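@channel anyone free to eyeball this complex?
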Amino acid sequence: MDIQQIIVYLLVAAATAFLVKKYFFKKKKAGNCGGDDCGCH
Amino acid sequence: MAGSSLKIALIGNPNTGKTSVFNLLTGLNQQVGNYPGITVERKVGSCRLPNGTKGTILDLPGTYSLNASSMDENVVIELLLNKNDKDYPDVAVVVTDVENLKRNLLLFTQIKDLEIPAILVINMADRMDKKGITVDIPYLESHLKTRIALISSRKGTGIDHLKELIVNYAALPTEPCLNASSIDPDYFNKLRQTFPNQLLYKLWLVITQDVNFGLIDLKELQGTAFTKTKSELKRLQQKETIKRYQFINDVLKTGQVIDHSKANDLRAKLDRVLTHRIFGYVIFFGILMLIFQSIFSWSEIPMNFIDESFAWLSAFTSQHMQPGKLTDLITQGIIPGIGGVVIFIPQIAFLFLFISVLEETGYMSRVVFLMDNVMKRFGLSGKSVVPLISGTACAIPAIMAARNIENWRERLITILVTPFTTCSARLPVYSILISLIIPNRYVLGIFNLQGLTLMLLYLLGFTGAILSAWILNKVLDIKHKSFFVAEMPNYKLPLLKNIGLTVLEKTKAFVYGAGKIILALSIIIWFLGSHGPGKKFSDAPAIVTAMPQSKTLTESQLNDAIAAYQLENSYIGIAGKGIEPVIRPLGYDWKIGIAIVSSFAAREVFVGTLATIYNIGSSAENEDEGTIRQRMAAEVNPVTGEKIFNFATGASLLLFYAFAMQCISTLAITKKETNSWKWPIIQLVGMSGFAYIVSFITYQLLK
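replying in thread with the prediction:
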């Protein structure tokens, strides 16, 4: 396997990880005030 | 204070020029967050204040008062009542319009009563002479217990004075304007006795806005001796509003003089024409036609330049890099994929240029008023026009903008139908398909046929939205009482700086938002198209060369035949072939099928995906054959020899993209806004099913 192929595999892995993170592991935003962890109390 | 950052909240009624003040204070140092629409976006910016102090400015959604009637207004209240919020301001800058001072001051007095240091900005000072208005600043400062900056955001005057006031915010008086106890002395005395350490007006807002803040829980108040019913609280709120207006009237009696004889009535004359029940619509559709004609005509030269530049870049890279997988990925995957985004920058920029001009001039508010008559017949509100027009940018903020519609039934219908509006992600798809199937010629000497088709598609989306609304209005069993209140701001010459910033911000959002997804998908699609299982893929050169028909091919033709065979037997080819039976009746081959499936990540991915698929294994060294449009136009059906993108397939695809629900993010936001999976599922099945049927009928009739 040459260096170009290694870089290609790394880029494919990074692209897949980016899309999986974007669509399946979205960051939860803080909810409205009134929740237990909203920081208002 | 030098070196530290001062937190400044910019607050005000809609249409007071708050965004212009924000732009003047921050320039290009802005970050745009997730609140919807121009006046309800959550923008944070920074500015350098006198003495080297840094200011962080939060542009809050436009609100008429602290009595929230929409979720956007809640954002303002939640922040101002919550000292633990990281954005809680050191100083509030309340922007008002000199022509609507009386109404705008209601919000100011409420903020003052929360004892937050507040500066009053009286904007649009440049219009005072024309409107015969004079203000007595020292008198107003002394009676409103504040400092005032008289500014003109149009001319950029008064901003330095405002910065001086901000930096000296510690000297601002924090006395309230209204004695909260005067609303209902008995009730407020009991409140004070129970919560002696709490600010009385804050308590009152906690009770009336049904939210919990500080150490006080609404539940603590319920069931006590001084509990009030909802209608009693409503009556007290009205009493509070009346008391505030009495106070404001008293102050303005001396503090502001309006000589009506000096005011001219150009606004009234324009309103009569622009909101006329016949001419109003004629003018509106005339403006729409002008916009779509211009989008196509003006964008042609820069789009061709970008298209050819990327083809050249791909060929240049291929010639100058070492042959190998990475070179193939860059020339066949990444460059065409990114080119598929960048090429649409001119059209996106022109679209937002026109939309921001319409908003800046005040015309958009007339459209809202004009369309209310039409909208209410379909179960929508006049305010639904804002999400429907914002939907031309993106359905996500547009759906969030529906929060401004007070009535739940109208809001739900608006949320469900907004994705029919043609969003900017559809524009690249429409644009490339129109250029492939509609001739670039003029009708009646002035109307470009491609521009007319684009306008027709936008109108189709809008018609789809209101017809679906009509059906939902008949079907949905939700009781409602509807009312419509909208403000028509003064006509203004648009500010170039505001328009420039809007165009820049929206174009950046398109390029960076969609660009990252497209880049990632381009890499994956190229990989899946360049790799495959089994011997059919790995032995493709030997298999194709051994075919009898290959004997007569030139070397270049043989290479293309091998590439096509490999692509068909690659991972993506196998997946595409798997879905082909479902999409074949619509006139699509497996390559278009792959592009449609990948469009669920973002619609504009369609063009990038096809560009990547058509580039895999092709001879990129020849830049003349390398533009996206040329490659799509040259694609033929290997069985029939006919062009893939003929009129029937193109029309079927255009209609599929016009009606199908293809955006995961939109479904997610619908779920969030309706707090139920039921509605996004109805949206997905209803819209996509309808799109399938329409595209099927279209292809079968036209083929």
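from a first look: The first strand of chain B starts at residue 5 and ends at 12.
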